């Protein structure tokens, strides 16, 4: 089996990938993650996932390279990125309050030896409770999810913000859809478990 490389600096993605009990290394790719003019959210995450994998291909021959990218999309089509600070996080959660947000996770698996690249987008929808400004502030002060698209951590206290969720793979909400990744790895001949 070729060596496995996660093209990400995200501790959340590393923790998820560890669930598969496969040896892997990780490295942050250096790419421009800007959205192109008029680029649809689904196209953005697929492109960025693939670019992250390709960015490390030359320096990692004979590897299976995993790239992933995620955005949150409000019902009106507005894309929510990482808030990076309290005021933006408050604004994002106010916008999500009482409505639905779809998380689109782009996933790419590149075989740097053959050049074959599998690319998909895995959606997952979160239906938020009606949230007061006080609830939002308490949550943000406790968990400080400023490095998370949509301003919450579903694997932590963020779950208390939800009324319900829907989707095929709950791990996609955290940023690495393991069910789809296993399919891709099996396509490359990786034995799991």
From TrEMBL:
Its main location: cytoplasm. Belongs to the Maf family. YceF subfamily. Pfam families: Maf (PF02545). The active site is at 69 (proton acceptor). GO terms for biological process: nucleotide metabolic process. The keyword ATP-binding does not apply. Nucleoside triphosphate pyrophosphatase that hydrolyzes 7-methyl-GTP (m(7)GTP). May have a dual role in cell division arrest and in preventing the incorporation of modified nucleotides into cellular nucleic acids. GO terms for molecular function: nucleoside triphosphate diphosphatase activity. PANTHER family: 7-METHYL-GTP PYROPHOSPHATASE, BIFUNCTIONAL DTTP/UTP PYROPHOSPHATASE/METHYLTRANSFERASE PROTEIN-RELATED. Its EC number is 3.6.1.-. Its cofactor is a divalent metal cation. Keywords: Cytoplasm, Hydrolase, Nucleotide metabolism. It is found in: Cytoplasm. SUPFAM superfamilies: ITPase-like. It catalyses: N(7)-methyl-GTP + H2O = N(7)-methyl-GMP + diphosphate + H(+). It is an enzyme of class 3 (hydrolase). HAMAP family: Maf (MF_00528). The keyword Manganese does not apply. GO terms for cellular component: cytoplasm. It comes from Ectopseudomonas toyotomiensis. The record marks 12, 70, 155 as: Important for substrate specificity. This is 7-methyl-GTP pyrophosphatase.
């Amino acid at each position: 089996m070729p060596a496995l490389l996660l093209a990400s600096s995200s501790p959340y993605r590393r923790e998820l990938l560890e669930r598969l009990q496969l040896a892997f290394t990780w490295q942050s790719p250096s790419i421009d993650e800007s959205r192109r003019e008029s680029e649809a959210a689904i196209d953005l995450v697929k492109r960025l996932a693939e670019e992250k994998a390709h960015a490390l291909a030359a320096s990692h021959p004979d590897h299976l390279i995993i790239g992933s990218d995620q955005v949150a999309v409000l019902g009106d089509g507005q894309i929510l990125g990482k808030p990076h600070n309290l005021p933006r996080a408050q604004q994002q959660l106010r916008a999500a309050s009482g409505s639905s947000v779809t998380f689109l996770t782009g996933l790419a698996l590149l075989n740097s030896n053959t050049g074959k690249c599998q690319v998909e987008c895995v959606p997952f929808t979160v239906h938020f409770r009606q949230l007061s400004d006080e609830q939002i502030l308490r949550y943000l002060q406790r968990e400080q999810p400023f490095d998370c698209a949509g301003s919450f951590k579903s694997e932590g206290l963020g779950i208390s913000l939800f009324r319900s969720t829907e989707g095929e793979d709950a791990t996609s909400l955290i940023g690495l859809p393991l069910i789809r990744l296993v399919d891709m790895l099996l396509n490359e001949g990786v034995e799991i478990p």
